[in-house]
TrEMBL record:
Protein name, UniProt field: Transcription elongation factor GreB
An example Gene Ontology molecular-function term: translation elongation factor activity
Functional note: Necessary for efficient RNA polymerase transcription elongation past template-encoded arresting sites. The arresting sites in DNA have the property of trapping a certain fraction of elongating RNA polymerases that pass through, resulting in locked ternary complexes. Cleavage of the nascent transcript by cleavage factors such as GreA or GreB allows the resumption of elongation from the new 3'terminus. GreB releases sequences of up to 9 nucleotides in length.
Gene3D superfamilies named in the record: Transcription elongation factor, GreA/GreB, C-terminal domain (3.10.50.30), Transcription elongation factor, GreA/GreB, N-terminal domain (1.10.287.180)
Organism: Sphingomonas floccifaciens
Organism superkingdom: Bacteria
Keyword Transcription regulation part of the UniProt annotation: yes
């Protein structure tokens, strides 16, 4: 990983909760089910055994992924941002396009991005284009649908 994995404290806590739920709850239950199914004899036609092993591999892959993401995480609290006049990590900005359509976006870590809820990843094209912008700045963004211009209308950060 060549760039830091910026993440908010809430985003890191969500990764941690998912890891702990998989590791401490779901995986042990599945191991018990697989052990029970293996004790029933012929494993070649035992659905509990076959699908349990498949699910166990999925869980182990996800645990490995979450572990790597948490190790690479750089937790940044947006409430501690010193320069609140520009868009930096954790900012919530209202932007307007050429047609005066307003959107409110919160710039969060890539692991906690949810575009439908207005939470965009810090390394997304729109976030890269708007980094460092102040109210009134116009930035050009290359999106899959084509190039768009956005004007920054407002910037807000969570309070401490």
């Amino acid at each position: 990983m060549n760039r830091p994995n910026y993440i908010t404290p809430a985003g890191y806590a969500a990764l941690r909760r998912e890891y702990e739920a998989l590791f401490a709850v779901e995986r042990p239950k599945l191991v018990d089910t697989i052990a029970w199914a293996a004790g029933n004899g012929d494993r070649s036609e035992n659905g509990d055994y076959i699908y349990g092993r498949k699910r166990l591999r999925e869980i182990d892959r996800r645990l490995g992924f979450l572990s790597k993401r948490m190790k690479a995480a750089k937790v940044v609290d947006p409430a501690q941002q010193e320069d609140r006049t520009r868009i930096w990590f954790g900012a919530t900005a209202t932007i307007a396009d050429e047609d005066d359509n307003h959107r409110t976006l919160t710039f969060v870590g890539d692991d906690e991005a949810e575009a439908g809820a207005g939470r965009v990843g810090w390394n997304s094209p729109i976030a890269r284009a708007l980094r460092g912008a102040a109210v009134g700045d116009v930035r050009r963004v290359m999106l899959p649908a084509g190039e768009r211009e956005y004007e920054v209308m407002a910037i807000d950060y969570p309070s401490t």
